[in-house]
Amino acid sequence: MHEAQRQRTCALLQARQIGAALFASPASITWLTGFAPPVQTGANPFAGAPPLVWWDGDRFTLIVVDGLASLSAPFADEADGDVVSYLGYTLATPLNGAQHLRTLLQSLWADTARARRVKRLGVESWALPAAASGILAASPLGGCTWVTIDGWLAPLRMVKTAEEIIKLRENFRLTDIAHAAARQAARAGAREIDVWLAAKAAVETAAGSRVPMGNDCVVGYRTENIGGWPLDHVLRPGDSLIVDLSTIQHGYWSDSCATYVAGEASPRQQAIHAVVSEALAVGAGLLRPGAVAGEIDRRVRGIITGAGYPVYPHHTGHSVGVTGHEAPRIVPDSQEILTAGMVILLEPGVYFARETGVRLEDAFLITEEGAVQLTTHDKSLAPVA
Amino acid sequence: MHEAQRQRTCALLQARQIGAALFASPASITWLTGFAPPVQTGANPFAGAPPLVWWDGDRFTLIVVDGLASLSAPFADEADGDVVSYLGYTLATPLNGAQHLRTLLQSLWADTARARRVKRLGVESWALPAAASGILAASPLGGCTWVTIDGWLAPLRMVKTAEEIIKLRENFRLTDIAHAAARQAARAGAREIDVWLAAKAAVETAAGSRVPMGNDCVVGYRTENIGGWPLDHVLRPGDSLIVDLSTIQHGYWSDSCATYVAGEASPRQQAIHAVVSEALAVGAGLLRPGAVAGEIDRRVRGIITGAGYPVYPHHTGHSVGVTGHEAPRIVPDSQEILTAGMVILLEPGVYFARETGVRLEDAFLITEEGAVQLTTHDKSLAPVA
Prior knowledge:
homodimer; Creatine Amidinohydrolase, Chain A, domain 1; Creatine Amidinohydrolase; 6-stranded mixed sheet; globular
């Protein structure tokens, strides 16, 4: 898995004269290896630190606590990678994942120092634990020049591989399923959390497993905040409900939004919805290789303001991958140029605090022939039959 | 919130001549401040780093990205604490949470250095990002003696405050609700994920909000692993299902386990269940101030082996709080002595790989008068009517 990602990374690091590198951010770990530890209840309680990836100038080594090692098995089969694990949970001795990790890291870095001469060492300094950094500094590699490589992989992640497109499509399929369930559940008397649960149940029933789900489920009279997780606010007849959903399967995110109305939409809601729909359609029509992100942002915002509505205070769009919000962003000053293989979300909206809000979002894969829509959910305001 | 926790921490740090300290582990952050950021979809994507807590020898300062600052408002009202936040999400400028955090930390540490003389500085080195450590080293405080304080708060966390007991009780109430729903759903033809969803829906419907939920939902023919998240394995008539549930509300965990059978339990399942029930009851009877953890472990295991069954390969019990598995652990070699205010889970089990498994778990609050059971879920094998 993810050999193309590692090839891109090798090329970048070698071009910048990096001889070895230590990755620590969850996004880098998943992108480099395909390994995606569960997130729903936080970190593994027996791990000394989050998973790390060591690149010795040639091979990638994923370093995980033993309890997660089986989940990383697919990566271990690769020609350019290994998985090493350390003791986490213990019964007969006190828990000490950090000490077991320390021993493993010392051994790994001594091996690298014996095998090759490293002059410049790259580290993801904002994700790497200070203790691991200290162990590295005390190792035979510690004396070489340290280079912070935080964020270096983000540009490499912008163009998705065929393997990533498959993972993303699986997630967009799940959010389509979630939206169909949310539309049915968004009736007067239901609470935000009830609609959310209907969507969540549809996703996990279809997936046959647990699936983390984000983002927003907010009734119109609460849209001062535009977003937010579902609470026990009740939908009254005529209330709008913004349902913005991501699923995370295989470490990859989807994203999509629709707005539902409990019963009949008012003429005002219909008028707002028509303008947001038009803004989304205009944006979608601009998505092609060579398009400039900032220009798409300007054109989509222009539809909203041209209709006399307040412009949304957030981005027009963004990409997704191993995170839910990544480059290229579709924001006012971006000079980023779209290329084939990027996945772009567009999500214009109109919000009137404590009254109603409408946001619509679709995902698109940029190809040489234009944009291919990845989301297929119904975004109409038509009431549930 | 959590003033008692901060008082205990001050006392410990001062007793060990620590003049200032930087906390970074999620457990420490929640325990010190009551602040519990959502975990279900991973870290805040716009944060430079996870939340930190700086103790300047007098006051505690919670350092969070702006998007999380509103969630930490209750702590900000305290006499001994503050919340400072830095810019995360941006629209008009590129995202750069790490740089905004850097500026904030530099300012904070310069202020401390101006106000007081620190000789010994404590840091949670396995959770602190290396970059934050580097900024601290370059600050006016960098020259003092650094002391790693990883794990120092764990012993302080063992005795729960009245405020924590309330939070824990709320979680045990939710897992009781979850078990009632799981019992109803555990019928032939249902999959593990279906039972899980029934429990999850019951919890979130009752809470009126999203609630992270762990731990295991495994059908008998899968109990080689003893634990595991629900998948699409189908319950056949007579299959047992281990349902081990935690909820996380207010940053605090519950934990509890029952074993259900799809239809009528076999005589063998009933016999196993009776022994596991007895082991749990014997363990519960030993819980009182002054009891030694290792001795409880020995006695509970003895019931299982005395009945001729293989002894479970895991701990007999543990505590919960801001994590799902914490001290005191009820394990063979522990000399830990129970005291009033501890919350203890006991969870003996018997497992036959690829056939059936039974585990039962209750939670207890140790008081001067003995153990008070916090879980009230039905742990019988009786089939659903």
